[in-house]
Amino acid sequence: MSTNPPGETPNPYDPSGQQPASPYQQPAPYQQPAPYQQPGQAQPSPYQQGGMPPVPGQPMTPYYNPYPKNSFAVWSLVLGIVSIVMCLGLLAGIPAIIMGNKARKAVVEGQADNDGMALAGIITGWVGTVLVTLFWVFYFGAIIFAVSQGVTDTSY
C-alpha cells in the first residue's frame, strides 16, 4: 500500500512495489506481412502499397506515377536549336534528328511522355540541316559561277 495522500502522484521509488501507470503505451510488436494473400482476403490499401495517404472526407484515389522524362527528347531539342543558331546543321542537326526519332519511339513504347519535345527536336534538326545545306550549295554555286566567268581582259 502506498503512503501518498489522495490526489498526489505516487512515488516511483515506493517500496510497496506498486508501479505508477505510465502515460505511454508500449508499441505493438512488429509482425511480418504474409508473403502471399489468398483470393478473397482483404487487399492492402493504396497507402500501404506506397500511395498517397487518405485525406479525410475525400474518396481514396491511387497514387499517380507519371512517366519519366526522356533525355533523348531533351538532347534532340538542344541539338536542333544549336544546329540553327550556330549554323552547325550537319554536325548538330543530324544527331538531333536521330535522337528525336529514338525519343518518339520511346514515347510510343510508353517509356516517356515528352512527344512534343521530341517532335520539336526533329523539326529544328531538319530546319538546321536544310539551311546549312542550302547555304553551302549557294556558296559553292557562287564560286563556280565566278570562276566560270573568269577575267578575259588582262590589260588595264
UniProtKB/TrEMBL annotation:
<feature type="compositionally biased region" description="Low complexity">
    <location>
        <begin position="15"/>
        <end position="52"/>
    </location>
</feature>
<feature type="region of interest" description="Disordered">
    <location>
        <begin position="1"/>
        <end position="60"/>
    </location>
</feature>
<dbReference type="Pfam" id="PF13828">
    <property type="entry name" value="DUF4190"/>
</dbReference>
<keyword id="KW-1133">Transmembrane helix</keyword>
<protein>
    <recommendedName>
        <fullName>DUF4190 domain-containing protein</fullName>
    </recommendedName>
</protein>
<feature type="domain" description="DUF4190">
    <location>
        <begin position="73"/>
        <end position="134"/>
    </location>
</feature>
<keyword id="KW-0472">Membrane</keyword>
<feature type="transmembrane region" description="Helical">
    <location>
        <begin position="72"/>
        <end position="98"/>
    </location>
</feature>
<feature type="transmembrane region" description="Helical">
    <location>
        <begin position="119"/>
        <end position="147"/>
    </location>
</feature>
<dbReference type="InterPro" id="IPR025241">
    <property type="entry name" value="DUF4190"/>
</dbReference>
<keyword id="KW-0812">Transmembrane</keyword>
